[in-house]
Amino acid sequence: MSDSQQTPLSQDELAAEAATALPDKEVISLLDLNVDLDLALDVAAPIDLAVAANANVAAPIDAAVAANVLSVGSQAAALSSQDALIDQGITGSAIAHGGQDSTIDQGNDVVDDGTGMTPAPAPAPAPGGTGVSADPDQLLDGDLLNVNVNANLDADLAAPIAGAVAANANVAAPIDAAVAANVASVGSSATSIADQDALITQHIDGTAEATTDQTSDIEQ
């Protein structure tokens, strides 16, 4: 039978058909996301640090700069002379001692609201109930996808840190510099002389000692 030979439905046949009206557009939602996160953290990080140092630092610096830029018949000269006599000595001891005694109790593993009382569990569904409405009019009423996430996290973190640093140091940095330049000049001369005499004596008579003692009693 072709399409032109199909018999249309009568008014009585159309009235006998069952249909369900769609809800209003504003009450339909594709995703209903409900996240309930209960996070309980016990964090303890006692830090003990001891630092001891003996240091001598000497840095005599001598510099001379001369320049001719775009000049004709000019002369630039730079002379730098440095005589340094440095005697550095340390007699003593650098001792750093760090002692740490930590007692950490993180034994409460009950996730609560901070009042110490555990919340009551959710009521159980009624016997025989399926949780799905049998009314066809309510199948499309509401959200197409309901996601409920309940996460309870209880973490105990403990990181006791103890450190000790001790140092003896002698630092000497005599610097002598002389710079002379002729840039785009005719008949000019640039002279740079740097003379440095440095006599440096460094000695350390002592000890550098760093000790750390750590005792941690952690209950998780």
Strand content: over 45%
Shape: flat
* Overall pLDDT score: 80
* pLDDT < 50 stretches: 128-132
Major beta-sheet overview:
2 strands, parallel
- N to C succession of SSEs: HEEEEEEEE
Output the strand order for the largest sheet.
1-5
Number of helices: 1
Q: Evaluate the radius of gyration.
A: 43 Å
Q: What oligomeric state do the depicted chains represent?
A: single chain
Helix content: under 10%
Features:
single chain, 220 residues, mainly beta, two-stranded parallel ribbon, 62% strand
Plain-language structure description:
The protein is an all-beta fold and 220 residues long. It has a domain of 122 residues. 3% of the residues lie in helices and 62% in strands. It contains one helix and eight strands; from the N terminus they run αββββββββ. It starts with 10 loop residues before the first helix and ends with a strand. About 2% of the residues have low confidence.
